[in-house]
Amino acid sequence: MMEDSPPSSDKASQTIAPADTASVRRAADILLKGGLVALPTETVYGLAADATSPEAVARIFKAKGRPQFNPLICHVPGRKAAAQLVDIPPLADHLIDAFWPGPLTLVLEKLPDAPVADAVCAGLSTLAVRAPAHALIRQVLKATGRPLAAPSANKSGRISPTTAQHVADDMGRDVDMILDGGPCHIGLESTIVSVIGDTITLLRPGAITDKAIESATGVHPQKPDNGSSVSAPGQLLSHYAPRASIRLQALDKKPDEILIGFGDIEGDFNLSPEGNPEEAAARLFATLRAADALAREQNKTVIAIAPIPATGLGLAINDRLRRAAAPKDSKPDNAASHGEGQNKG
Ligand code: TXA
Ligand code: MG
Q1: Tens digit of pLDDT for each residue in 93-134?
Q2: Which of the two ends of the chain, N or C, has the fewest CB atoms closer than 10 A to its terminal CB?
Q3: How many Å apart are CA 114 and CA 100, to the nearest integer?
Q4: Structure pTM?
């Protein structure tokens, strides 16, 4: 499939396809033959493969340079398809009713006979499932009739893609097709929770906030280090790493820096002049990429980033910024995590 690939830019421009019926059909064909299709979700672009095929799933790990012990999220159209794969306790049903389709991933006990390649769960007894809201991935899910394993379509440890061009830049030579659905409107990966009995554990903050989860269910989500045995193995401290290093909580710009502003703090870029967290989230990854390119162009070594209030969606933004700023050889940051600091999604 990929052996005779032309150079990245040529292949990438051939592989970006418009969002139309013919492209959806071609994407489904490629997936059913075991290929890789990058496609938009409402959060970030995903790198999709048929989750039932061990060979196809292996290609995802290879293309991303992802460690085998970092499991993948299985994308499904909705509850009915999820129920073929995982056990859904009543509390998870509340979450599904409230937030699916949408940017919420549920980590649940996998059914023993779930038709999913072992590598998707990376040896865990659980499986992460999510029903995305974006029309394009929903059409592809329908056309394949298969669960689709899809991590973010970036090289492991790098910044997640929010446009088709980001995917082409990073992974152009590694994918068979990139479906272009325009910029992702949320811009941060899904919220991930584990549900065991009456306990919800927040494994990755996202657009579905802990407050929204609490008001939908009456249950306050726990932190993973609160004596819980669950973790998201890919939640490493260093992630979303640009080439330049990062200085957080910057109120001004030093000579060797590119400044990303927010609200009144102007910069080379501004995530949201109005100080709107939704806008800042949607622009975050594209702005980090642009700032990194500008830093390189101007021979600067640091990207400084203005403070963003750590409430609501700001919690998820600050989570990503903290990981982007972490030393690139740092270890996992939650007590229950395993691995040697190589584990990135
Ligand atoms: O918004 C999203 O969730 C995007 C789009 C494409 O759907 N996907 C995404 O996938 O962010 P990825 O692979 O980049 O991040 C998935 C995270 C990883 O940190 C992984 O360790 C964790 O989910 N995860 C997957 N399965 C898990 C499981 N069974 N238990 C705990 N964590 C799991
Ligand atoms: Mg990722």
Answers
A1: 999 999 999 999 999 999 999 999 999 999 899 999 999 999
A2: N
A3: 21
A4: 0.92
